[in-house]
Amino acid sequence: MSVSHSSKLNKLVREQYMRLPQDGRVQVTYVWIDGSGEGVRCKSRTLDKEPKSIEDVPEWNFDGSSTAQAEGSNSDMFLVPVCMFRDPFCLDPNKLVLCEVLKYNRKPAETNLRHTCKKVMDLVKDSHPWFGMEQEYTLLGINGHPYGWPDNGFPGPQGPYYCGVGADKVYGRDIVESHYKACLYAGVKICGTNAEVMPSQWEFQVGPCEGIEMGDHLWMARFILHRVCEDFGVVATLDPKPMTGNWNGAGCHTNYSTEEMRREGGLKRGVVEGLVALMSGELDETMG
Questions:
Q1: Sign of dihedral through CA atoms 83, 86, 87, 90?
Q2: For residues 109 and 131, what is the distance between their CA atoms, to the nearest angstrom?
Q3: Which of 6, 223, 253, 282 is most buried, judging by how many CB atoms fall within 10 Å of its CB?
Q4: For position 266, what pLDDT does the model report?
Q5: Model's pTM, two decimal places?
């Protein structure tokens, strides 16, 4: 099985250091989306006391030329804390903090899509939009081959793997359950998980989340997934089609509703009639 060298280190040795007291000081890990728009990065600093709210966490900076977010000649980028979680790796009172990224001129970085999304969510806050996200992913060995698959072949055809049970049906459940518990500890609004159609493919669900917390909780759940996989020595990929051929792809399905849609009869009024109006060219009149 292809796993990372780091995962083979003696974790009991690490544990003796993790139990040491911190004398009231707190380790805060800043998390942000890098220049790929898909990858996450992190760095940690010490605060003299436990932050009680996001306002207690100071801005920080990083070298954007090393994350594909800036030129080397002007690489300072700002990390602006926006959402705080408990740290399931270093434990209380330590924190994980999701950040927006600003360029040297305080303008949002190109991959800082949260900045615009927050403006939209503020405009529609009276509608109380709820989101439920279903994030599929695939576990890979460090060699890029799906975890648990034969080294020189393929598993049996799809069919028995979806929501499967048994050593010949699912691969990596320890990773999945560790991620679930870590998210619960952190305060991420994770609400479920299941094995998917392709072996080594899994899904977790986040929600319901209102407004901008949809993205905050989904991205922190992704970060925690990558960190948990790091401990186990494997890789989690969100690639929509990690394996060619007759193997299911992966995506992130989105469930959405407004307060009006959640009322009795609201789904018909908000969706069905809206679609009818759209198809008949009367959308402007209906929405007005």
A1: positive
A2: 25
A3: 223
A4: 81
A5: 0.93
C-alpha closest to that of 182 among 214, 213, 219, 220:
220
User: Could you give the CA distance from residue 108 to residue 113 in angstroms, rounded to a whole number?
Assistant: 8
What six digits make up the tokens of 238? Answer: 């969100």
Average model confidence (pLDDT) for the chain? 93
Q: Strands 26-33 and 95-102: what pairing?
A: parallel
Tell how strand 130-140 and strand 201-210 pair up.
antiparallel
- Strands (E) in the chain, as ranges, are 26-33, 40-47, 60-63, 76-86, 95-102, 130-140, 190-195, 201-210, 235-237, 252-257
Q: What digits encode the pLDDT tens for the residues 70-106?
A: 998 889 999 999 999 999 999 999 999 999 999 999 9
The pLDDT score that the predictor gives to residue 284 is 56
pLDDT at 288: 46
Q: If you compute the radius of gyration of the chain from its CA atoms, what whole number of angstroms results?
A: 21
| Number of DSSP helices (H) and strands (E) in the chain, helices first | 8, 10
Distance, C-alpha 165 to centroid of its chain: 25
Percent of the chain with pLDDT over 70: 93
Determine the Cα–Cα distance for residues 188 and 125; give it in Å rounded to an integer: 21
Q: Which residues, listed in sequence order, are joined to residue 129 by a DSSP beta bridge?
A: none
Terminal Cα distance for the chain, rounded: 60
